Each structure stands twice: as C-alpha cells, then as structure tokens.
C-alpha cells in the first residue's frame, strides 16, 4: 500500500463542510460588526455542517487507522492472539456503527414521513438527518477496510 489509505469522498465532504462553516461564520461576524445584527440561518447550518465534518473526519481517521485505541494489549499479545483481538475490536465497532446507521436511518425516515420542519428555518428536518446513516455507513465500510488491512499486517499499531 503506497502512503496512507484514502477516503477521498469523505475528505472532500469534510473539507467542503469546513469551508462553508468558515464562510458562514466570517459573513456573520462581518454583518454583526457592520449592522449590529446577524444572519438567522448561520447557527442551524453551522451545527449541521459540524456534524457532517465530524462524521466525515471520523471516517477518514478509521481508514487511516488514526482513531484512539490502547495498543498496549495488542502489542503485548502473541501474534496468534493479535488477530482475535483485532476481530473483537472490529466486531464492537461494527455493532456500534450498525446501530447508529440503523436507528439514524429510521429517524431520518420518520422525519420524512412526519414532514417535520427544522425549528430555525423551517426546512425539512430529514435534510439534516439523512446524513447520519449515510456517513455512519461510510464509517462501517472504512472499518471493514481498516480491519482487513490490519489483519494482513499492512496497518500496525504504532502508538
């Protein structure tokens, strides 16, 4: 494997979210300074984009094997047990991310059916929520890729 494993769609999405958050915040600061008022939509969009940025960044971190984990036990175990520990870690992650994907999708679908509107701007709430199951499913995929690479010995715990 050359360089770091890539998660290009998530990197682009995270970068785009960060750029838009920065532009919205800058525009709001300038407007507040010049007029004493602020844009009403900035908080709702900024919070939404921050969640997207967090999930996209977590997906990239999973693919690059940069999530925090205690590697002491992994390094201390004999080689034959290391694979079992890696699989156990992956299973725990798959369960958590699977639950987030399932219940996030269920929540987004219910909000779509109920035609719920966001409190600030009155936009359909599911527009914001649909990204939760999509990005947690991306994290699931990146976890599978990371686990495969760790089992092959292409990614090792260096911390």
List the defining traits of the structure above.
6 helices; cell inner membrane; 159 residues; 0% strand; transmembrane; mainly alpha; elongated
Summary?
The chain is mainly α.
Q: What does the model show?
A:
By secondary structure, the protein is mainly alpha-helical. It has one domain (8-152). It has 6 helices and no strands. The radius of gyration is 20 Å and the shape is elongated.
Number of separate helices: 6
Biggest sheet details: none
In total, the number of domains comes to 1
Uncertain residue ranges: none
Give the terminus-to-terminus CA distance. Answer: 20 Å
**Helix-strand pattern, N to C?**
HHHHHH
Going by helix content, strand content and strand pairing, the class is mainly alpha
- Please indicate the percent range of residues in DSSP E strands (runs of 2 or more): under 5%
**How would the global form be characterised?**
elongated
Rg for CA atoms: 20 Å
Q: List how many beta strands DSSP finds.
A: 0
Helix percent reads over 70%
Average of pLDDT: 91
């Amino acid at each position: 494997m050359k360089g770091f494993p890539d998660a290009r769609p998530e990197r682009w999405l995270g970068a785009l979210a960060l750029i838009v958050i920065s532009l919205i915040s800058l525009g709001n600061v300038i407007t507040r300074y010049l007029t004493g008022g602020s844009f009403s939509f900035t908080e709702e969009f900024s919070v939404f984009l921050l969640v997207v940025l967090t999930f996209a960044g977590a997906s990239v971190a999973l693919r690059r094997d940069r999530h925090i984990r205690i590697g002491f036990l992994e390094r201390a175990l004999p080689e034959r047990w290391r694979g079992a520990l890696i699989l156990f870690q992956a299973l725990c992650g798959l369960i958590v991310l699977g639950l987030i994907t399932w219940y996030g999708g269920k929540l987004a679908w219910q909000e779509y059916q109920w035609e719920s509107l966001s409190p600030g701007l009155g936009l359909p709430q599911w527009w914001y929520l649909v990204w939760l199951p999509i990005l947690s499913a991306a994290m699931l995929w990146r976890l599978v890729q990371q686990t495969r690479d760790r089992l092959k010995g292409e990614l090792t715990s260096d911390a």
